Structures are given as structure tokens and as C-alpha cells.
UniProtKB/TrEMBL annotation:
Protein name: Efflux RND transporter periplasmic adaptor subunit
Entry keywords, A to Z: Cell inner membrane, Cell membrane, Membrane, Transmembrane, Transmembrane helix, Transport
Domain of life of the native organism: Bacteria
Family affiliation: Belongs to the membrane fusion protein (MFP) (TC 8.A.1) family.
Multidrug resistance protein MdtA-like alpha-helical hairpin domain location: 182-246
Domain Multidrug resistance protein MdtA-like barrel-sandwich hybrid per the UniProt entry, residue ranges: 137-277
Molecular function (Gene Ontology), one example: efflux transmembrane transporter activity
Residue ranges of the region described as Disordered: 431-463
Subcellular location: Cell membrane
Residues of the Multidrug resistance protein MdtA-like C-terminal permuted SH3 domain: 369-426
Length: 463
């Protein structure tokens, strides 16, 4: 018996647009659907537009087995189809994005950067510090006699030679003292000669028993007294001559004169008033400090001979070469630093007392060291790295191990080989695989270097 029209309409509503008339499927009351019938119903559902929405379960009393089985099959097929559709769409989106990125990477122009070649050479191992130059000797010139300053033979700031005449104290009073001393010496000499003759005569008389021993001893005492007086007058004359010589003040050494503190025609007090300060700058010394932890290395390498020291003033690319002349006998407990001094010939007077300089103390030489410009080394979360460019001008990140810094160069112990190309400027625009093109000209100076020079200059102004 066939399903009546009301039951057919109810089934049509529950199945969406599926009906027996449209699908050609007929159901008999009370009959279980065979496997072929189930497949036919599923086919009818899919062809009838079931993708629009899931089908609710059938509530028919006449075909419960068929309703449950159809609902389970249709729900399973719908879920599987939805997942497959979403997976296909996601795969298509990823493929499109990847293709877009590759096409964009190909279309993107090369990034202009500065590059440098990795080099290998023997490299000195330096300890670097900031120091300041100091005069090798400093002399405050004072008068050794009191008198009027009557002459000056140089200008403030002039270079001076040893024994060059500087000042003259009025010599007239001291010349008079010399003449007075000479007169006293002549007088005491005559008196001594007279006393000596008297003693010789009395000695002869004493031998003849003509005078007593007491008289002879008196003449002997008188002779010795005159002798001592002559020696005293001789010493006074020498002192007068020395004081006369002190009136003519000369430079004790080669050096640079400074400010003149007393004007002409003023009275100068002996050993009190400073006339001028002379600083010896050829040679000159440079004072600097390094961490005390390097003391053992300094003692180790210093035992082989004098250690080389470089000093480079600001604005001068050529360093002055000297030698280490002093290692202090104590490490400062407050700072942990040890004071050192280097001595420099300074033939062209490029080092000047008080100027701040960059100091490098040469400890030893590292053989076949690998070097790159210091600006090529970057800091990342996992350590230091560089950007390396291959022959196709594509860049890649390469981890490296920094041994030390040598001026504007970095000495590497791992990560690079001689001849490779590294990026020294423009790293912020790079990503792995990016194409680069060499940019002409030197890379700009780092802000840290500019700030360091400003700090050194400000120290010089404050001093």
C-alpha cells in the first residue's frame, strides 16, 4: 500500500525538497528499507538540495528504522563534507598567500647596504682606555734671592731651551756684596800671613830658650785664628758670588713656558714668589687606568721587554708610539683599577699636557685572526650575529662568536671565513633571503662613537 498524500507532504517537509514524485522513490507501510533503498534516499537528498541545511530526524511511525538510518547517514555525510570543504579552502588560501609572497619578493627591488669583506691577518691584542697627557717634568721657577725684577727675556707661552735666560733680578746689591767679601778675604789673608810669620819666629826663639812655651802657644793660637777667619771670609765671598749669579734666572730644562705671574719692577721674595711654570713635553707621559684583572697579563707580557703603548689625540688618526714606564704598586680598592703610565718622545708636540687621548696598551699578537668591521656585528636574543651575503647577493643571518674589539674592527673566533661578505650598514631593512645591492661610500658613524667623542671633549673642557 502506498503512502497517502498527507504522509507524503509531511515527509516532504521534513526532508526539505525531497518527495516520492520527484525522486521516483516509493515506500511501503511497515517495510524496512534495503541497502539499495537507503542509498537511493541519500542520493535523492543530495540531489534535492540538502547541502542548504542539515535535515532533522524523521518522526514517522510507519518507518522508524528507515528514518533513523537516513538521519545518521545524512548527518555524517554533511559533517565530513563540511570539513573537507573548509580544508580545501584553507589550502587554497595558503597557496595563494605563498604565491603572493614569492611574487612580491621577486618584484621587490634589492636593498642598498654597505658591505665589507672578512679579512684574516695577524692582529695585536690591545687593552684600550682613556687617558690624559701630563708633563714629563714640571718646574715652578722662583727666585733664590730677594730683589727687584728688572728684566724678562721671553714671552708667556714661548718654548724654552735649557740654560736660556729668563729673568734678571737687580744685581747691584749683590755685586757690592761680592766686592765686600773680596776685601775681607784680602784683609784676613794678610793677617794670617803675619800671624804665621810670628809663630815661626817664636818657634825659633823657643828652641833657643829665649821665650817660654806659653808665649809660643799664644802665637800658634793667634795664627790659627787668622787662618779660620780667612776661610770664613772665603766662604762669605763664595756665597756673595752665588747670590750674584742667582740674579740671572735661567731655564732649568727644555720645556714650554706658561703664564708669567709677576710683572717687571716688582720686588721678588726669595723662594716664595712663583715667576713662571715650565712643563717638559719632549718627552711626555700619559696617565691611564685599566681594570685590575689584567694585571697578571701585563706582568706576563711585560717580562719579555718594554710594552708598546699607543696614544691618539682626538682629531688625529695617527697615534703616537711610546712604551709603558710605570705600573702602580696598588689596585684602587674603590674602583678596582690600576694606574699606568706611558712615556712618549713626542717630537712634534702632538701630545699636550692635560689633553685626553685614546690609549691602547699592546699585550701580544693574535696570529691569523678573522676580522670584520665592528658595526657588522649585531646583538640578538640568542647572541651575536652578522648578515652574510652570498654570490647572488641574498643575505642570511649567521651566528658568530666575538673574541674582542680592536678599534673599529671586531675579532671573531667563530662563524666566518676570510673572503665572505658581511653587511655593515642597513641591517634593519633585511630579512633572510632578501636581495641586497652594495651602496657606494663609507657607512655613517655610529651614534655611540659620536657620543664617546663628545664625552671626551667635554672632559677636556672641564679640565
Amino acid at each position: 500500500m502506498s503512502i497517502n498524500n498527507s504522509e507524503s507532504s509531511s515527509a516532504d517537509r521534513r526532508f526539505g525538497r525531497v518527495s516520492g514524485a520527484k525522486s521516483g522513490c516509493a515506500l511501503r507501510n511497515g517495510e524496512d528499507l534495503p541497502e539499495t533503498a537507503t542509498s537511493a534516499i541519500l542520493k535523492c537528498y543530495l540531489l534535492g538540495g540538502a547541502l542548504a541545511s542539515p535535515v532533522p530526524p524523521i518522526r514517522s511511525q510507519t518507518i522508524p528504522n528507515m528514518e533513523t538510518r537516513c538521519h545518521q547517514l545524512i548527518t555524517s555525510v554533511w559533517s565530513l563534507g563540511s570539513c573537507l570543504a573548509l580544508a580545501c579552502l584553507f589550502a587554497l588560501a595558503l597557496t595563494a598567500c605563498g604565491r603572493t609572497q614569492k611574487e612580491a619578493s621577486k618584484d621587490r627591488p634589492p636593498i642598498p647596504v654597505h658591505m665589507a669583506e672578512v679579512i684574516q691577518k695577524d692582529t695585536p691584542f690591545f687593552l684600550e682606555a682613556i687617558g690624559n697627557a701630563a708633563a714629563y717634568n714640571t718646574v715652578d721657577v722662583k727666585s733664590r734671592v730677594t730683589g727687584e725684577l728688572v728684566n724678562r727675556f721671553f714671552k708667556a707661552g714661548d718654548p724654552l731651551k735649557e740654560e736660556q735666560e729668563l729673568f734678571t733680578i737687580d744685581p747691584a746689591p749683590f755685586q757690592a756684596k761680592v766686592r765686600e767679601g773680596e776685601a775681607k778675604l784680602r784683609q784676613s789673608t794678610v793677617q794670617y800671613e803675619q800671624a804665621k810669620r810670628e809663630y815661626v819666629r817664636f818657634k825659633t826663639l823657643y828652641a833657643e830658650k829665649a821665650v817660654s812655651q806659653e808665649q809660643l802657644e799664644t802665637k800658634e793660637v793667634d795664627m790659627n785664628s787668622k787662618l779660620y777667619q780667612r776661610e770664613l771670609n772665603q766662604a762669605e765671598l763664595e756665597t756673595a758670588k752665588l747670590n750674584l749669579g742667582y740674579c740671572f734666572i735661567r731655564a732649568p730644562l727644555d720645556g714650554q713656558s706658561g703664564e708669567i705671574y709677576i710683572d717687571d719692577f716688582n720686588i721678588v721674595n726669595a723662594n716664595q714668589d712663583k715667576l713662571v711654570t715650565i712643563k717638559q713635553i719632549k718627552p711626555i707621559k700619559v696617565k691611564f687606568s685599566i681594570p685590575g684583572k689584567y694585571l697578571d697579563e701585563i706582568r706576563k707580557y711585560g717580562s719579555n721587554g718594554a710594552m708598546e703603548v699607543e696614544a691618539r689625540p682626538l682629531g688625529n688618526d695617527k697615534p703616537e708610539i711610546g712604551s709603558l714606564s710605570l705600573v702602580d704598586n696598588i689596585i684602587n680598592p674603590k674602583t678596582g683599577m690600576i694606574a699606568l703610565e706611558g712615556t712618549f718622545a713626542n717630537p712634534e708636540a702632538k701630545l699636550w699636557p692635560g689633553v685626553f687621548v685614546r690609549v691602547r696598551l699592546k699585550l701580544t699578537v693574535t696570529r691569523s685572526a678573522v676580522l670584520v668591521p665592528e658595526r657588522a656585528v649585531n646583538e640578538g636574543p640568542e647572541g651575536q650575529y652578522v648578515w652574510v651575503a652570498n654570490q647572488e647577493h641574498a643575505v642570511a643571518m649567521r651566528p658568530v662568536k666575538l673574541d674582542r674589539r680592536d678599534g673599529d674592527m671586531a675579532v671573531l673566533s667563530e662563524g666566518l671565513k676570510p673572503g665572505e661578505k658581511v653587511v655593515t650598514d642597513g641591517q634593519l631593512l633585511l630579512h633572510p633571503g632578501a636581495k641586497v645591492v652594495p651602496r657606494p661610500g663609507a657607512p655613517p658613524r655610529k651614534v655611540e662613537e659620536q657620543n664617546q667623542e663628545k664625552n671626551i671633549k667635554s672632559r677636556g673642557r672641564e679640565s
